[in-house]
Design brief:
Keywords: DNA-binding, Transcription, Transcription regulation
Number of strands: 12
GO molecular function: DNA binding
Strand content: 15-25%
Structural class: alpha/beta
Largest sheet: 5 strands, mixed
Order of helices and strands: HHHEEHEHEHEEEEHEHEHEEHH
InterPro entries: LysR_HTH_N, WH-like_DNA-bd_sf, WH_DNA-bd_sf
Family: Belongs to the LysR transcriptional regulatory family.
Number of domains: 3
Protein name: DNA-binding transcriptional LysR family regulator
């Protein structure tokens, strides 16, 4: 039996003095209330009301059970209220600064369809980590190991002008025209992780590149001008290159992938596990449609 429904009927019948009045208050018909009271009595092992007189009165068992039944109903109401308040509170999501506002609006709309209000902030990797640890945000998109990734994308090199569709080899930075000898390959903050940075530097050493030719950007604006106008290159996904009007080529020296995950506080895990949210979030992060929504390995 539904214990909570039975207790609600029990409390209402006692408070209103009749089955008919209780049914009206609960939005039910009187026979339903009678059946629920009868089921509760069977569960508790005895009658809750004296029914031999015109006026209802509690039996000794009913008197003993009424307080607990009322408490159960109040706790259930409190639980429902807290759940409603939690779902109406905006979920605070921190994303990498390279995400486009137009794409993030789709993330907000998707969360709304799933019953969540979401508030998004864009910030660099370091401030995002601090915000999550200091409880300023509920969700944090961050780089992670391949086995824990929700999204994955192959990294390549992008720049201006169009250099064809062939693979890019790092030693070609040494053969750039004289005017571009200071050109560098810029790495975005989101890719400043050992799994990407270390093999890239080893490949750079094999190609006899200087440290100045492999640069880690501290902010996304740091690489915009050098890549767009001064002959430098950007390590990025093919989707990101298209967004910025750059020409993208895969790496020839090594295979690199960006692996991202969303770290969540317990109350919002339901949102992060939704396939529609994962797919929309992946596209906003610059991942291709084929890899957005990659299942999490736990």
């Amino acid at each position: 039996m539904d214990l909570l429904s039975g207790c609600r009927c029990f409390v209402e019948v006692n408070d209103r003095g009749s089955f008919t009045a209780a049914a009206e208050a609960l939005g039910l018909v009187q026979p339903v209330v009678s059946r629920r009271i009868a089921a509760l009595e069977r569960s508790l092992g005895g009658a809750l009301f004296h029914r031999s007189t015109r006026n209802l009165s509690l039996t000794p068992l009913g008197s003993a059970m009424l307080g607990k039944a009322r408490q159960l109903c109040e706790l259930a109401d409190e639980l429902s209220l807290q759940a409603a308040e939690q779902r109406s509170r905006p979920v605070r999501l921190c994303v990498p600064e390279h995400c486009e506002l137009a794409d993030l609006s789709s993330v907000v709309a998707t969360a709304h369809r799933l019953g969540f209000q979401i508030r998004i902030c864009r910030c660099d990797v370091y401030r995002g980590t601090h915000a999550f640890r200091s409880l300023e945000v509920d969700l944090l998109v961050e780089a992670g190991p391949a086995g824990e990734a929700q999204w994955a994308a192959r990294l390549g090199v992008a720049g201006q002008p169009d250099a064809g569709t062939g693979r890019f080899f790092l030693d070609s930075l040494r053969t750039f025209p004289a005017a571009d000898r200071s050109a560098a390959l810029w790495v975005q903050p989101i890719d400043d992780v050992p799994a990407i940075r270390d093999p890239l530097r080893r490949a750079g050493d094999r190609a006899a590149l200087t440290r100045r030719q492999l640069r880690i950007a501290t902010h996304f604006t740091e690489w915009i001008a050098p890549v767009s106008f001064a002959g430098s290159l950007l390590l990025c996904t093919e989707e990101e290159a298209e967004r910025h009007g750059l020409f993208w080529r895969p790496l020839g020296d090594l295979e690199l992938h960006r692996f991202l995950r969303v770290t969540a506080r317990e109350p919002v895990l339901e949102l992060t596990g939704a396939a529609e949210f994962s797919r929309t979030m992946g596209l906003a992060l610059g991942m291709s449609a084929a890899t957005a929504g990659l299942a999490v390995a736990r």
